[in-house]
Amino acid sequence: MADDLEGLVSRNIRFFRTTAGLSQKNLADATQLHPRYVQKLETQPVNLTLESLTKIAKALHIEPYQLLLDPASAMPKPTRKTYTLKQAADVMIRLIETWKTTLD
Prior knowledge:
- The protein contains 6 helices and no strands.
- It is an all-alpha fold.
- It has a single domain (2-74), classed as 434 Repressor (Amino-terminal Domain), CATH 1.10.260.40.
- The longest helix is centred in the C-terminal third of the chain and has 19 residues, at 85-103.
């Protein structure tokens, strides 16, 4: 269980860091953590302190709990809406009409 959580936190740190466009060095500088420690956090399970977790979350502009969430369970389930052919055609006609009025 602990290994799973540590692995999840490691993956989330990497995900949020790359999404924010930060390098490991940038994250280390922003958190005042050693760059090798940040690298280790992302590559192997590490017993992370709450203080470090909070610093990392702050630097990534997220809440600390977000690093503990499984992305698969946090994402809303996609819904699929089906349309009849007539409904789809009506939507296309409205889009074309809107497009024509914006060009005029």
